[in-house]
Amino acid sequence: xxxxxxxxxCRSLCHRHQLFISFRDxxxxxxxxxxxxxxxxxxxxxxxxxxxxxxxxxxxAFMQALMHAVDPNVPKAVCIPTKLSPISMLYQDxxxxxxxxxxxxxxxxxxxC
Amino acid sequence: QTSRFQEYDLLQFLDLExxxxxxxxQPVPPVLRKIFQAREAAxxxxxxxxxxxxxxxxxxxxxxxxxxxxxxxxxxxxxxxxGPCLQKFLYFNLSAVKEKGKLTMARLTLDLGPRSYYHLRPxxxxxxxxxxxxxxWGRPHPKPGRMLALQSVPGPQGPVHFNLQGVLKDWxxxxxxxxxxxxEILAKGDRYSGVNVQVENxxxxxxxxxxASLLVVTLNPEHCHPSSRKRR
Lengths: 113, 232
Hints:
Distance between the termini of chain A: 21 Å
Oligomer: heterodimer
Shape of chain B: globular
Number of strands of chain B: 11
Structural class of chain A: mainly beta
Order of helices and strands of chain A: EEHEEEHEE
Number of strands of chain A: 7
Largest sheet of chain A: 3 strands, antiparallel
């Protein structure tokens, strides 16, 4: 049977919240050449049983939500990143060297339960 | 106070002891700018990319550093008729290379000035030697040690690259914090030009436009899993 989409705003459900960290706000624009900042997105929101059957959620989340429905002592499934991407930083260090550094899994692209 | 504390944490996370406070910005080397822009474009397109492989250089690595030369010319007087027209001591402060990690590239680039085709310049011969650090750097004339390269560069010129990975591997093990090289450039005159006018022009131009830099690429195993299979 089709699971009814929960009423009310989806805002409370698990989704990606966007947050941009500007290096200028940190005073880092004096030594970071590029980029101007980076996306410090985060995942937050509820994972009710109904959500675990469609959104990019894992099978495990489905089972945990089912168990939570049966026994509330089992915690709900949680909202976590399901797709991450890297960032590269081009900056100058204290010895006038220009440095290009890559950091993996720094930006949250997608969230799921 | 809180933001100060968090900034410290973020710097630590980025493997930086403290926020650099450079007095002046170095020009961004074209090779790093090109790699950065390619990465940004790939990220914007959502393409998954292996950040631990630098395809533009064909080596693995997740940290690229370009060290400017802090050396000095040894011959400022007019180049002698048949001696080298340029002798330079190249000096790279490598103390910033602290992190554990595997050295995957050390490339010295000598930019011999803009390529120009309006007149072919004489061939130049580039000789490169290691200068042992101990005790000679203070002297005006550091004694060249082992020869690293002898390369003939036909005009017109442009950047010339030398692979110094072997030299830096030794250096890495020795705990030394800087690298000294001795550079000599000879311009082969045009036999028919009589007073070697071309050689003098070439020498003057090289003295004005020579620019040396050292590109070092390291791979940090903690940040780069051995070329990971595609995630299931």
